[in-house]
Every structure is written in structure tokens, then in C-alpha cells.
Hints:
Elements: H1 2-30, E1 34-39, E2 47-55, E3 60-69, E4 74-82, E5 85-93, E6 96-106, E7 114-136, E8 139-165, E9 168-187, H2 194-210, E10 214-215, E11 226-229, E12 234-255
Antiparallel strand pairs: 1-2, 1-12, 2-3, 3-6, 4-5, 4-10, 6-7, 7-8, 8-9, 9-12, 11-12
Amino acid sequence: xxxxxxxxxxxxxxxxxxxxxxxxxxxxxxxxxxxxxxxxxxxxxxxxxxxxxxxxxxxxxxxxxxxxxxxxxxxxxxxxxxxxxxxxxxxxxxxxxxxxxxxxxxxxxxxxxxxxxxxxxxxxxxxxxxxxxxxxxxxxxxxxxxxxxxxxxxxxxxxxxxxxxxxxxxxxxxxxxxxxxxxxxxxxxxxxxxxxxxxxxxxxxxxxxxxxxxxxxxxxxxxxxxxxxxxxxxxxxxxxxxxxxxxxxxxxxxxx
Length: 256
């Protein structure tokens, strides 16, 4: 009798189990697999961006973040030890340019939802102006260095993503990494003569031998330059420099 009761119970439960399994399959089939997002925090730095994330497994996604940094003033402080004396440069630069950030994410529970760890790559290409003063004929000339910087690298990050409403998600993340690349600066001013550019080149070379330059946040990217002087401009290259990468944001997305 007990065996018959057990068999009957199993027969009655079988349709319910199959229904639950079918519901799970249907839910997975119709669940969002793609997401378009934007990092709203970066707009405070005048950086427009778009972020695409796609499921490639139950707990794995891949994505691509791309953006363009509009010109905005960034305050820079640098300190150098020249001839035994500490000298500080303070100025405002306006970097602009584009960046790309492909990434891979692992969600321990479910793709798109909850805590995740991330591995990312980063490429950027920026241009900027660096103001400086030059003493000539008893007066001070205000001029600009034209600069560029580009690098590629990667790092690791963590974050959490959760659903705010139907298909609307909030993504909070932070990460850190390193990139290697080159920087370049050039000065060309109608108030300067060919001999002035030679002096500028000599000063750059002198700083290369005597100075220990540290730019706050960026580190020693202004050391070991290759300096050149011509009739109408002077330039310097800073090759194979290591740049820090700081990644983070508050991202709003729509899944589909």
C-alpha cells in the first residue's frame, strides 16, 4: 500500500516538476542577453561614453566601453629636484581624446546580476596643451607646449550590478591597472628665435641628467626625454612610459 502511495505521489509531482523545468527554460530563452549603458559619473569630467555588454554564458559576459574626453581643465602639479633644489611646476592642462575599454566579467550567481569580477584592457590617445613662461629680453613670454599621450594596458576591477526596474540596471564598479605608452611635447612660438630653441633643448637634456621629476598621480612619465631643436620649434619624446589606469563609475543601462 505504501509503495502505491509513493508511486502515486511521484506521478502527481511529475507534471509540476516538468512545468517548473519548462518555465526555467522559457525564462532563460526570453531573458535579456544584451545591455546598452552609459557611465553617468564620467559626464562630470566631460567624458561622453557608451558601454555594450553581452552574455556569453550563464555567468559570463563580455563588453566594450568607448568614449571621448572633451577638453576640460585639469590642474597639474609637478615637483623636481634640480641642482639640489626642489622646484615645483603648477599649471592647468586641457586633455582631450578617445579611449577604448574591452572587458570580461564573471558573475558568481547569474550574468548581469549581483557581484562580479572583471578583467579589462585599456587604450587611450589624448592631446593637450601645457602652459609655461619663458624669459626673453627682460620680459616674460607666456606660451604653450603641444602634447600628446597614448598607451595600452589592462587591469582588474570589481563591481555590483542590479535591476532597478524592468530591464533597467544600475552598475557600480571600480578598478585599477597599468598601461605602457609614449608621450610627446613640442613648443613653437613666433616670439622665439632658433637659438632659443637650442637653449630649450639644452635645458631639457640638463633636466634629464640632473632632475628627478615626479608628476603627481602620473609618476615619473617626464623623465628620460629625447630632446631635439630646430629652426622654428623644439620637441621631446618620452618613450615606453608606464601610466596608471583608474577605472570606475556609476552606470545606467537598458537590457534587451
